[in-house]
Predict the structure.
Amino acid sequence: MTRKKRRLMVLLLAGLGLGTATALTLTAFQDNLVFFLSPSDVVARHPSGDRAFRLGGLVENGSVERHTGSDGRPLATFRVSDGPNAISVTYAGVLPDLFREGQGVVTLGRLLPDGSFRATEVLARHDETYMPPEVADALRRSGHWNPNQGAAPPAETWNTAPRGGRSGG
């Protein structure tokens, strides 16, 4: 083999290696990318159940039910609402100490075929003035909160707003 051909082969192999490494890196990033959706986004987009995402909003008053699963673990069901829509959420495990009705929550999990959400992680807000940024954005988009008019309204007033019916699983 001539010197030029060897150089060309080395460059081609280096390019192939760099391309493969880039493809593997991009694939790993895509698998770890988790999107945030509000209940209204879920109703509009109908995401598939094969991809995990974050669901956020406020826990509806009167929707929290606590049980013990067949395996003895705590099991909770509740509804997450952004006003016009609400999604039923099931979570197996101990809920955070700050979790309660009317508070902001972000859950990580997957949508089930029946339209409910199976959470693997539940994050509750950490003080009286904090609201997760994603939840605040969803409230602004749905028209239930204008930050210039003060704090977000209580969750129990959202479902009485003339913005359409509730939906979800």
In short: The beta strands are 35-37, 53-59, 65-68, 74-81, 86-92, 104-111, 117-124. The two ends are 68 Å apart (CA to CA). The CA atoms of residues 87 and 168 lie 5 Å apart.
